[in-house]
Amino acid sequence: MSDRLWVRKFTPTRKLPIITVIIPLLALTLWGCSLVGITPTPTLVQQALTIQIKEIHQQLKLQSDFARSPQSFKITRVAISNMEPIMINNLQGFKVEGTYNLSVKFSDRWWREQQNRFQIYLQRQAQGRIWRLARLENQTNRWSTVPIPHRRF
Prior knowledge:
Keywords: Membrane, Transmembrane, Transmembrane helix. It is a single chain. The chain is α+β, with helices and mostly antiparallel strands. The chain contains three helices and five strands. A five-stranded antiparallel beta sheet has the order 1-2-3-4-5. The longest helix is centred in the middle third of the chain and has 22 residues, at 42-63. The radius of gyration is 25 Å and the shape is globular. It starts with a helix and ends in a 6-residue tail after the last strand.
């Protein structure tokens, strides 16, 4: 009879499953909050790609006479497939690779291209609030950076 009492004392109660659910959820919540802003998000990458495409468009306009110049463009479905931490000008940065969809509006129609591959470099400033689009200049082998307008990433 004493064996039955001993076994009965250590049988799980209904509170145990609740605790096993709450503790991991709390841990994941705290862990997730600590990672906010540390790595580039798809929204940040989309803004960096927008800057890069606008710059390329301006260079093409200067080099040739565009009779059918695009009026606007839209980047959607940014998917990050690889992210490697690197140092850019002694600050934390990332080499980010993935794909995106591009829609370009001309005066009479839309042109769409899906699953465009990208490889960009993003640098995080020391305070951690500002991100910059980084490029390695071929002639000087130095990094040049352009700030990405601050929005909620």
